[in-house]
Queue: 2 jobs
Job 1
Amino acid sequence: MSQPRVVLGVAGGIAAYKVVEVLRGLTEAGHDVTVVPTAAALNFVGEATWAALSAHPVATSVWANAHEVSHVKLGQQADCVVVAPATADLLARATHGIANDLLTNVLLTARCPIVLAPAMHTEMWQHPATQSNVATLRARGVIVLEPAAGRLTGADFGPGRLPDPVAIVAAVQDVVRRPPTADLSGRRVVISAGGTREIWDPVRFIGNISSGRQGVELARTAVSRGAKVTLVAAHLSVPAPAGVTLVSVSSADDLLAAMLAAATGADAIVMAAAVADFRPEAVATSKIKKPEGPADLSLKLSPTVDILVELVRRREGGLPVIVGFAAETAVDEHELVQLGRQKLARKGCDLLVVNEVGRQVVFGSEENEVTILGHEGSEVHLPRSSKAAISDAVWNAVVHEWKRA
Ligand code: CTP
């Protein structure tokens, strides 16, 4: 297969320095990248940097190489155009079809997926003009990633930071690997990911080794298929994907509250988080000291609420479709499915994604082998696959449930 061709547009914002990492990530992942910086962008990062890292001449002007009509060719031949940072000005020009430099010409001629990674001050991002531009672009099928929140240039703090370069590269890879089908568009989905922590004194907790990778892949694939995604995240050890509404939680109780709040009006809920089944009955307010001499310490634990069961219990009508995950130790596939069926019946959800733990490492790994069980008896076995491929299969099963409803 030939290398996917990506045009990396860089608009004039200070976050341009972080986009050097995006370029490296794209080329290392095997993309053929042409960088199109705006004149303003070159004030932040010079032409030589882009040329050296992309191994291509940098296209800066509609007047350069006029005989090649590059403003038309670049857009037409690209498999994806990504702009990072997409400044407020760039978003406005893209929305209104203004073509006053090479990058905006490319955006008008491109017929491939377009990914925009905004970065600007919070006030500019939240301004009704920018928000209305973003809504228009999204309605046209442009993927506008949600900016990250945090410290901005200067002392200000809020949404407007460039999404993590790793997340921008992943968003491009997603659309290049599979042009968006948008079969989840108009749907709102809620996903829990990661592992909860139960505090028992100011410096100690009971946790688990879930990385959150499967939940993050579920969120990323749902975004690329057009869904509006809320990711309720408990201590992820991988970055959250771009384009989601992120709700960070810590304990099982926090997760329960966040899931109940997000569940209202959702079309699907996927419980991929590893939730503590027990929590310490009492939380010490000061650090528990080691006693003098040898001594045992016992912690009294009490059960947490089963969030999955609670979500099923509160559901009215057929929506949301509710998906659980189950980690089981079994001797063979037959026993695994049997244990999964029992859990599916116990939890009352629509779909259960069962994986075997014990013999194979699942937590933190890039791959997994699962069976998706449906409440009406369906059974889809996925041989060892990437967590992204498993996520796609889960969404296919959810789409099937929506059609049945
Ligand atoms: N789950 C939940 N709330 C809990 C415990 C688990 O919502 N307090 C959800 C998990 O997110 C997962 C599903 O229930 O989607 C199954 O989790 P699992 O740990 O396999 O099942 P348990 O109910 O804990 O049963 P057991 O550990 O006995 O197998």
Job 2
Amino acid sequence: MAKENIKEDSSLKQIVSLAKRRGFVFGGSEIYGGLSNTFDYGPQGIEILLNLKKLWWQYFVHKRDDVLGLDSSILLHPKVWEASGHVSNFNDPLMDCKSCRSRFRVDKFLEDKKGENFCVGKSLDEMTQIILEENYKCPNCGSEKTFTPARQFNLMFKTSHGASEEDATEIYLRPETAQGIFINFKNVSQISRRKIPFGIAQIGKSFRNEIMARQFIFRTREFEQMEMEFFCEPGTQGKWFSHWVDYCMTWLINVVGLKPDSIRIRDHDPEELSHYSDKTSDIEFKYPFGWGELWGIASRTDFDLTQHEKFSGEDLKYIDQENKKKFLPYVVEPALGLNRLFLAVLADAYEEEKLEDGDIRTVLHLHPKVAPVKIGIFPLMKKDGLAEKAKEIYDSLSEHWYCEYDEGGAIGKRYRRQDEIGTPFCITIDYNTMEDNTVTVRERDTMNQDRIPVTSLKSYFIEKL
Ligand code: ATP
């Protein structure tokens, strides 16, 4: 059927609705009235998360002989966060409206009005002053001049460590996975006998008490990161920085299947750089609400290892046996948020198509490796042995791919359901199957249908998937 695209930019609302309807993402704790800004990933959602993690691990760890994996604790010694600077620097400026008690991030509030990077380098007092001078109203209740002065708010979640209240120590949930890697640098380099340059990669949950958690799963308080710290000789960080920016872009386009036009690289201005970085670029994605950070790539110098040496008293220097040199390596870090990538993947794949017969179909053009279900298998009817034959095919193919068997309702509706979850292929078992042992294979994007012998299905899908 001929088709035309009727929606260039899918809106966030439609994606949220599809995500709920088709079991990608649910609101957290829904039966108790919900817990704001928490999300649960349903049967389709978990498949996509696992696929993305697997693709990342293959490309960033298994495919590279210079990167190793790690899984460090979420709970780390509190000194880790003093050394890393998170206790003193991991703050966002906030202010409250005294009238309705809503809380805002002052920098984001001002930048929405005055433009990107407006607040870079501005003090809390300066930001407060501008808000008062411009007579800005509270975006929630509309009151004027009711804001408290801007103040710093630390984003780390606190919890206690210890069985009884008296013995408990105050510790933090990690706000990034990176520090778990730095404090294991010595362990990994010793046991692996790796020569510099090499990297350590890790996937895991991080927690930030974001003031303005918003835009569905874009900014949440609990999220998952896929981070890699690449340790290299001082002076070579510029070369490795470019290498990793290119490597990440290639993975997003060639492996995950994002459209090249949907992503761009934005270099940080010098005054925007974090205290530990001599160069940072973000790979941004064009979300339904505008361009935003997807992947941060930072040249972190030797800041973290220097700090951990200082705070722990351990010698973390690397010894280059060949050249008889001892030094603290420099680090290049590509840090990606899994949940933001998930949102990017859904938004990029979402399309509403107007078909020739006037019908509209919603389809996710997911890359087959990312798609939750690879093959839908349907008997045309339940009777006359068609269901048994379909189950036989399901049993043999599901040994290799995640398949879904569906025997209920009109065949067209079953196709549409699979289109909405991005299933690349569907197989229909009909009366001809019983005579000539062939089935119809329908491809999601073109909706073309081929007749394929059952005996060739495995080789057909090996090629296609
Ligand atoms: P932002 O400026 O959007 O707050 P950031 O620069 O603080 O992000 P990093 O510390 O560089 O983020 O973290 C690396 C990646 O982790 C980000 O590029 C993003 O994909 C993801 N990430 C960071 N904070 C969140 C969050 N609150 N919710 C979901 N993902 C996040």
